[in-house]
Each structure stands twice: as structure tokens, then as C-alpha cells.
Write a structure and sequence with these properties.
Length: about 350
Amino acid sequence: MASAIPLVWSDDHRLHDPAAEIWVGVRTPAAEVPERADAIRRAVTAAGAEVVPAASHDGTALEAVHDSALLAFLASAWRDWEAAGLPEDPGQDRVVPYIFPHPGLMDGLEPFLPAAAWARPGAFCFDTMTLIGPGTWEAARAAADVALTAAELVAGGRRAAYACCRPPGHHATRGAYGGSCYLNNAAIAAQRLRELGAARVGIVDVDAHHGNGAQSIFWERSDVFTGSVHVDPAAGWFPHFLGGAAERGAGAGAGANVNVPLPPGADDRDWLRGVGELLETARSHGVEALVLALGVDAAGGDPESPLEVTAGGFREAGRLVGRLGAPVVVVQEGGYDLASIGGLVLATLEGIDEGGGRNA
Ligand code: SP5
Ligand code: ZN
């Protein structure tokens, strides 16, 4: 079956090859590899999707969602690391943090921005798993361009567009990167939809991991509803420290964030109930456009999550999204089993078509 949803693309994702993750101090092979986006693109275009090249954008849309200090750090991090000689001595070929301005260290004081290139990453990164190399910034910029281009297609009247983003974005907050994410592509797309006329926008995140980035960025805003269904961080899963059902937003945004944490092993039925709850809540908030943060790592067999969703589950989630009736920007997040991720994304896009999201 042909997908009527255009796929927005940039070859520049390949400039980012983190190669490794530092987990419990050990250098392990990266899960977030360039082949991911290529595999997804192959499956979706084999089904007939039109490919739209990403248009480049200046920094304005990034500044609307991220701190300028984070953007400045990311833009020069690799150059600064190299200039400090760190690839030769001590022999570290990626930017990795080693000290963090932990609340327990600072006790309310404002941290310095470290002068040392080896200390500065800790001011902006919340884990040791999200490495920066040559080309990481260029690829992250390109992924944001992909998301922005998809948002502009939808604002221009397309019923749906698929942003084949890499690196992913949903763990990145206003001021920090981590979880294999540098810039929050979904949040950037949502903010752009707001600027282009949607009075209320929803971000529904179905990646296996909590969408902490959008939750935090829009925490005090009522104009962007955020929802995430994910494996319960309190049961031992990334991001470990947040993502519970009690997190509902604050101030003007009180009630405009919903988390549905699921137990490890949760299947289609549990997961689809969560997806449905998020979409219903988005509907009740009156969203005029939706961003679907589509990680497919909730699938059974994915090496990074214990959820057991099937391709049929992803197709049904797509149908629920299509039935919402709002135009939708689908933004790629996680999904790490190279053999299956393309089919899972395609099933979701076909579900959106079937549910009513077919382009006129
Ligand atoms: C975008 C996305 O799905 N990010 C999720 C990142 C979660 N990574 C947590 C990894 C936890 C440790 N896994 C052990 C594997 C060692 N290589
Ligand atoms: Zn994930």
C-alpha cells in the first residue's frame, strides 16, 4: 500500500556518528547509528512515499525552544574539544562529560561556565551516553530543518508529513542534551506550528522512553499540550529520575502535561489504551495540530526497551492519530532494531492514512 504522507529528509544525518555510548563508565557500541534513518527511509519510500528535501532555516526557530548557551555550546563543542587536544591526550575521540553541576554540588549557587573544554560538557549534558563528534552539530541542525520543513508542509495545508529526523530529539530540554538527543525536533516543530497559526498544539510521544524534553520545555504553557506513554522510569528505565503520572505541568500549564507510565512487558492493549488516553486529552485541550513523537522502540524485540508492542499495534496507533482529525507532523525519535524499524514506521504512517489523515 502506498503511503500518501511525504517523507522529509536530509542526507546530513550521516554526519553524526556517535560510534559509542559510555554506560557505567564502559565504552559500548552506539545504538543510535546512521543506518537507522537509512533503513526507515528505504522502507517508507519502497511503499511509494514522496521524498521532500529539508529546507535550511536560520537559528530563530531553535532559539524559540532552546537556551542560547546550549546552542552556542553545541555549535562549538567538537571544535573546542579538538583544539584542547583531547582526541590525542587522553585519547578520547568524542566529547564526553565528566563533572556535572549537580544540585547537590551547587546547593542553589549559579554554576560557572567552565573554562576547561573537558569540564564544559557537564554544564549541558545530563548523561554520559550522548557523545559529540565531528558533524554532530551539523546533523542535529539538519534534523531540526527536517522537522521544521514537515511543520511548514502541514501549516501549508498538508494533512500529514513525516520528518525522518536523526539524531532524535525528545530527551533534549531547553538547556540540556542527553539520551542520544541534542535539539528537540518535536518541540521545535510544535513551536513552529504555533507561530504559523495553530492556536493550540499537542505533542503526543509514543517512544518507549519518557518525552521529558517537551514536558519540561512546555511545562508552564497551556498552548502546547504534552503527553507521553512510556515504560515506567520508576521500574528501572531511562530517564530514571522523572516521567511519573503525577507530573501534570504548572502555572498556566497545569493539567497540560500527561504521563502514562507502563510496566515492563506491557503489550498492544495496555499501550494503545495509553495512546488513546493521550489523544483524548489532546482533543479536550482543543489542539488544532498534532506532533506525533514517533519512537518505535516500544516494539517487542527492540534492544532498548522491554515493551512488547507489535506492528499491528503501531498501525492501530496511527489510525487513532488519523481519527483525531487534526493535521499531524510525525517526528522520528527512537527505534533501534535495524531489521524492523522501517516496517514499524511504515505501519504507523499507513494507519494514519487509514484513520483519516490521507492527504487530499
Ligand atoms: C531517543 C531515545 O530512544 N533515547 C533513549 C536513550 C536510552 N538509552 C538508555 C540506555 C540505557 C543503557 N542501556 C545499556 C546499553 C549499553 N550499550
Ligand atoms: Zn526511546
